[in-house]
Design goal:
- This protein is an alpha/beta fold.
- It folds into two domains: about 90 residues, Isochorismatase-like (Rossmann fold); about 70 residues, no CATH class.
- The chain has six helices and six strands.
- The strands form two sheets. Strands 1-2-3 form a three-stranded parallel sheet. Strands 5-4-6 form a three-stranded antiparallel sheet.
- α3 links the parallel β2 and β3.
- It is elongated and about 70 Å long.
């Protein structure tokens, strides 16, 4: 059974440009250095053309790996840039992980009977992707919370939390982060 083809959705894409550094690029052996550089710049041009969220990261830039390609910094002056202090795997770096994660904080209040008092309110968000995917993400967060209520709670817990503002922080990553 074959998997159906799904087109890339620009509203649900992010470009991660990892370790395109002078010292590391000189180690690429399976493609000519000029072709490799041109391929990297072509991907960057596509990311810029389609206005995709882009994140730049380097590893041990002050050491033998060298600086990031200056064309990338010039093309994405406002993109998050994470200079990792030597971690080989970018996913091991907390700053990189923070840059590729969506985050939402929701404020809500629960009644004594375990039902919601009013509508949950988003008080903070850091979202990835385009406007359409951001709206979908927020709708899914609010929908997931709504499906949790009403909850069966004890009288003691109901009395303790009734009417008090509760904050839930929801964090999710891209690419399985």
């Amino acid at each position: 059974m074959s998997t159906p083809y799904n087109r890339l959705d620009l509203d649900q894409a992010v470009v991660l440009l990892l370790d395109h550094q002078a010292g590391l690029m000189s180690l690429v052996c399976d493609i000519e250095p000029d072709k490799f550089r041109n391929n990297v710049l072509a991907v960057a041009d596509l990311a810029a053309y389609f206005q995709l969220p882009t994140i730049l990261t380097t590893s041990f830039e002050e050491g033998p790996n060298g600086p990031i390609m200056p064309e990338l910094k010039a093309k994405f002056p406002n993109a998050p840039f994470i200079a990792r202090p030597g971690q080989i795997n970018a996913w091991d770096n907390s700053d990189f992980l923070a840059a590729v994660k969506a985050e939402v904080t929701v404020l809500l209040t629960i009644k004594r009977d375990g039902s919601l008092l009013g509508q949950p309110r988003i008080t903070h968000s850091r979202l990835l992707g385009g406007e359409s995917s951001q709206k979908d993400y927020l709708a899914s967060v609010l929908g997931a919370l709504a499906s949790c209520f009403p909850r069966q709670i004890t009288d003691g817990l109901g009395g303790a939390i009734a009417g008090r503002p509760l904050r839930y922080r929801i964090v999710s990553g891209v690419l399985g982060a």
